[in-house]
Amino acid sequence: MTNEEKLYNSGVLTEKRPGAILPPRELWEKKKNGLVIIECPQEIPCNPCYSSCPTGAILPFEKIIHTPKIDYSKCIGCALCVASCPGLACFVVDLTYGSEEEALMKLPYELLPVPEKGEEVDCLSRIGEIVAKGKVVEVTEPRKDRTKVVHVVVPRELVDDIRAIRVVK
Ligand code: SF4
Ligand code: SF4
Predict the structure, then answer these.
(1) Where are the domains of the chain?
(2) Residues 52, 27: Cα–Cα separation, whole Å
(3) What is the pTM assigned to this prediction?
(4) Distance from CA of residue 88 to its chain's centroid?
(5) CA 40 to centroid of chain Cα atoms
(6) Are 49 and 110 in contact (CB under 8 A)?
(7) Nearest Cα to 86, choosing from 112, 125, 140, 47?
(8) In whole numbers, what is the pLDDT of the chain averaged over residues?
(9) Distance, CA 136 to ligand 2 centroid (Å)?
């Protein structure tokens, strides 16, 4: 089996498996606090993204196995879905943060050690390759269940590539 096929079978988005739900660019550029991206193309019986969303931005699932749909006019970038998704498939990206070269990503994190505010971390692609360095500006635990949401300042040009972080100790 090729690497591409292994990734495809594991549900990771590849060139063969488009399926990211992305915000409309014009709205995304202006929306303070950011908007959600969801990368969940497989039909599985799961909907915590929907049930955790306080604004109704994630639309009701007609069937539990359906994939999420988003009303971006209702997303407030709160990242509750980021903390709730068992597949770590939700991310918030704030394109209004910092300078023109920067953006803020709110990423799910379930490993130890937990990164600390001010720490520099490796930013990883979907397949775990280091693509940049990022700076942690906040770590929250919205559901108090050990799933953290790490707020990381990253190079803006890489928000489509960065999907995880790794602590460098
Ligand atoms: S970021 Fe908040 S408002 Fe937006 S979809 Fe997720 S839970 Fe809903
Ligand atoms: S909670 Fe996560 S894995 Fe489950 S349907 Fe929503 S995005 Fe997909």
Answers:
(1) 3-167
(2) 23
(3) 0.91
(4) 7
(5) 11
(6) no
(7) 47
(8) 91
(9) 25
As a whole number of angstroms, the distance between CA 166 and CA 169 comes to 9
CB 70 within 8 A of CB 58: yes
Sign of CA dihedral 108, 155, 122, 67: positive
pLDDT the model gives residue 127: 87
- Rounded Cα–Cα distance for residues 81 and 137 (Å): 20
- Exposed e or buried b for every residue in 115-152, given b needs 16+ CB within 10 A? beeebebbbbbbeeeebbebbbeebeebeeeebbbbbb
Question: Which string of DSSP letters, residue by residue, matches 8-71?
Answer: HHHT---TT---EE---HHHHHH-TT-EEEEE--S--S--HHHHH-SSS-BPPPSSTTSPP-B-
Task: Among 10, 63, 90, say which to mutate for ligand 2: greatest number of ligand atoms within 8 Å of CB.
Answer: 90
Tell the residue nearest (CA) to atom 3 of ligand 1: 75
Contact indicator for 169, 114 with CB cutoff of 8 Å: no
Length of the chain: 169
* pLDDT grade for 4, boundaries at 50, 70 and 90: low
